[in-house]
UniProtKB/TrEMBL annotation:
<feature type="domain" description="Heparin-sulfate lyase N-terminal">
    <location>
        <begin position="115"/>
        <end position="343"/>
    </location>
</feature>
<dbReference type="Pfam" id="PF16889">
    <property type="entry name" value="Hepar_II_III_N"/>
</dbReference>
<keyword id="KW-0732">Signal</keyword>
<dbReference type="InterPro" id="IPR012480">
    <property type="entry name" value="Hepar_II_III_C"/>
</dbReference>
<protein>
    <submittedName>
        <fullName>Heparinase II/III family protein</fullName>
    </submittedName>
</protein>
<keyword id="KW-0574">Periplasm</keyword>
<keyword id="KW-0456">Lyase</keyword>
<dbReference type="Pfam" id="PF07940">
    <property type="entry name" value="Hepar_II_III_C"/>
</dbReference>
<dbReference type="GO" id="GO:0016829">
    <property type="term" value="F:lyase activity"/>
</dbReference>
<dbReference type="GO" id="GO:0042597">
    <property type="term" value="C:periplasmic space"/>
</dbReference>
<feature type="domain" description="Heparinase II/III-like C-terminal">
    <location>
        <begin position="368"/>
        <end position="588"/>
    </location>
</feature>
<dbReference type="InterPro" id="IPR031680">
    <property type="entry name" value="Hepar_II_III_N"/>
</dbReference>
<dbReference type="InterPro" id="IPR008929">
    <property type="entry name" value="Chondroitin_lyas"/>
</dbReference>
């Protein structure tokens, strides 16, 4: 089933319609007007007796002045912040592309370079749509300028890319104003990516290959187009991409680009309000935070290299966003895979932090602090830590990257990822997309088969929740207390409260669910691939031991004891660490049933013989671990 067919099937489904209504109801008027504007342009522009493509081509000045020094210097700085493995991967991809094979999103396409590039072949347009977007965004150019210091190191790749640019410029199918152009090669987001990659590639090749003149001409007309199609209606990270693209284009063209520079600055200043009080991007996806932060770091460095004053709003985002990332950085240094985050699509965390240092952005944070505005809370320190996602969903008018992960946890022991989120397989409205956003894909509790927030399609989100969270320390015990209620005349009603206590080398998680009807309540824990889960019965109660599959099973990384559950079973679940990459991993499920249930589990760095929780009604008062009693602070 194609992406289009999948969307049509979703939108005609009776269960989807209320979710669609709620999503549209929360959209801002500017978004709705933008959808109408794009639809109208696509209908009208191709039928006008005007050659729109030639109109933009005539805007390119003769004797175009090109000044690559600023972008070249910034690109060199960025390249030097990458790790050796990342640069090696770029060089491999560049070499493959030189032979006509392009790989994005774990899918390789032979683009038919010998007979000219077929930019809109069935293979290019085959789902996922994100593949074509990255291809038309010229992301392949980054493999050359980030993998190699100089173009002389990869002459075959530079020659191939030069041919591709000539083909793009001369092909009828890539002309501005063709049928569907705003949903194909001239999607403003793709245009923004194309400008950034062209700008860096132009600056990198210098005058050594003869491609600079053509690339600069393509870049100029793309910038002129983008200036007329800024995505104010879409907003979010798209607007940030638009702003940086115009800023970089403006830095390359001296007098002709002055207005683009000013527009780019204005856009980035306006978009600075997308960052929350703790410095996190408001879509609450660690991956998109890194992407957005790296754009602001580039903007700050570009303006400084040109001797311009940097607006305080840009400096504030760069500084607070860097501090946020330092605080969110897990023990293994890799992104938490929450809210549409995957590996390989943004700068690695440490590379982004090195980039911030290299462009002169200093933050006062040393890491591992809780981030209240974004809703991320750390319990523990050093190499043994638990991260709780206790925040709101993303902004109501941009719910696309939000998941049903209310109070979900991820966990690291001895610096290794043990309990992990699911990641994202794709954005098309498929079963895998639905699963990755569902409550079942996260390390939290589910009442019956209910989704706390209805989800559908690629990005639709139903009636939102309003969780309340308290995180503090009492009597030497760190604790998290979060709760939400699912209410509504047409919705199944229930409430969920999750309390987490941390002391020494253990974490106690205790869930309370109260509902109008009796149903099974399931707490799921998804285990990192490569970690084995073994059932142990040599103590007074069953426990599960988590150990590296290739390590010493007599010395587990962690031990887990279910508490109060009617059953505890081990099965498997799917894991999507990268786009279009699926793995199998262990999954531990604990279940209790009723209208009002309380149960939980204790996770410890070492095996425990016996564990018991003491509670008075809903109030948890203490825990006994191996006959040692520990009173717990009141969280009421």
């Amino acid at each position: 089933m194609s992406d289009v067919d999948s969307r049509l099937a979703q939108l005609t489904d009776t269960e989807t319609m209320p979710v669609l209504y709620n999503t549209v109801r929360n959209m801002e008027s500017e978004q709705l007007l933008g959808i109408a504007d794009r639809t109208l342009r696509q209908l009208v522009v191709p039928s006008l007796p005007v050659d729109t493509d030639q109109w933009y081509d005539r805007k390119v000045p003769s004797g175009l002045a090109f000044a690559p020094e600023t972008v070249r210097g910034n690109t060199t700085t960025l390249r030097r912040c990458l790790g050796g493995d990342d640069r090696r991967r770029y060089r491999e991809r560049a070499s493959e592309a030189g032979r006509g094979s392009v790989t994005f999103l774990n899918r390789t396409v032979d683009i038919g370079e010998s007979d000219g590039v077929d930019w809109f072949s069935s293979a290019v347009l085959e789902p996922p749509e994100l593949w074509a977007l990255q291809f038309h965004g010229f992301e392949f150019l980054s493999w050359a300028y980030l993998g190699h210091d100089e173009p002389q190191a990869c002459p075959a790749t530079v020659e191939a890319f030069s041919d591709w640019l000539e083909d793009w410029y001369g092909a009828d199918e890539t002309r501005i104003g063709t049928d569907g152009y705003l949903r194909r090669g001239w999607t403003p987001y793709a245009v923004s990516l194309r400008i950034v990659h062209l700008a860096r590639f132009c600056a990198w090749v210098r005058n050594d290959t003869g491609v600079e003149t053509l690339a600069a001409r393509i870049l100029y007309r793309n910038a002129a187009f983008l200036a007329n199609h800024v995505e104010y209606d879409v907003g979010g990270n798209h607007l940030i991409e638009n702003g940086l693209a115009l800023l970089l284009a403006g830095s390359l063209f001296e007098e002709e680009g002055t207005q683009w520079t000013e527009t780019g600055i204005e856009i980035l200043v306006d978009a600075s309000d997308q960052f929350l009080a703790d410095g996190g991007h408001f879509e609450r996806s660690p991956m998109y935070h890194v992407i957005a932060l790296s754009r602001y770091l580039t903007a700050v460095d570009t303006l400084r290299r040109e001797g311009r004053d940097v607006p305080s709003e840009l400096l504030d985002v760069a500084t607070s966003g860097t501090e946020f990332l330092r605080q969110l950085r897990p023990p293994d240094g890799r992104l938490p895979l929450v809210n549409d985050a995957v590996f390989g699509e943004a700068l690695p965390v440490d590379a982004c932090l090195r980039y911030a240092d290299a462009v002169g952005i200093q933050s006062g944070s040393v890491g591992a602090a809780s981030l209240d505005a974004s809703g991320y809370y750390w319990l523990g320190e050093g190499e043994d830590r638990m991260l709780v996602d206790g925040g709101q969903s993303g902004p109501a008018h941009l719910p696309g990257h939000s998941h049903n992960d209310q109070f979900a946890i991820t966990f690291w022991a001895d610096g290794q990822r043990l309990l992990t989120d699911t990641g994202t397989y794709e954005y098309a409205p498929t079963d895998k997309r639905q699963y990755s956003r569902s409550v079942a894909a996260h390390n939290t509790v589910q009442y019956g088969d209910i989704e706390p927030i209805p989800i559908s399609g690629s990005y639709l989100l139903g009636r939102r929740l309003d969780p309340t969270v308290r995180e503090a320390e009492g009597d030497g015990v760190q604790f998290f207390d979060g709760r939400y209620s699912r209410r509504g005349r047409l919705q199944t009603q229930y409430s969920h409260r999750r309390r987490i206590y941390h002391d020494e080398d253990w974490w106690l998680v205790w869930d309370t669910v109260d509902a109008s009807e009796s149903a099974p309540v399931t707490s799921r824990l998804h285990v990192q691939p490569g970690i084995d889960v073994a059932t142990e019965t040599d103590s007074t109660q069953p426990r599960f031991e988590l150990a590296a599959a290739d390590g010493n099973t007599d010395d587990p990384l962690a031990s887990l004891v279910p508490l109060g559950a009617d059953s505890a079973t081990v099965a498997t679940s799917q894991y999507f660490p990268e786009f279009r990459r699926a793995e199998t991993r262990p999954k531990l499920s604990m279940t209790a049933e009723g209208r009002s249930v309380q149960f939980g589990w204790l996770l410890s760095r070492r095996p425990r013989r016996s564990v018991a929780v003491e509670h008075d009604g809903e109030t948890v008062t203490g825990v006994s671990i191996d006959d040692r009693y520990r009173s717990l602070p009141a969280t009421e």
